[in-house]
Amino acid sequence: MKTMQANVVTPDGSVYNGQVEMVSAKTTEGELGILPGHLPLVTPLDVGAVRLKHDSKIQLIAVSGGFMEVRPDEVNVLAESAELPSDIDVARARAAKERAERRLEQAKKDNIDFKRAEMALKRAINRLDVANK
Question: Which residue spans adopt a coiled-coil conformation according to this UniProt entry (predicted)?
Answer without folding.
Answer: 90-117
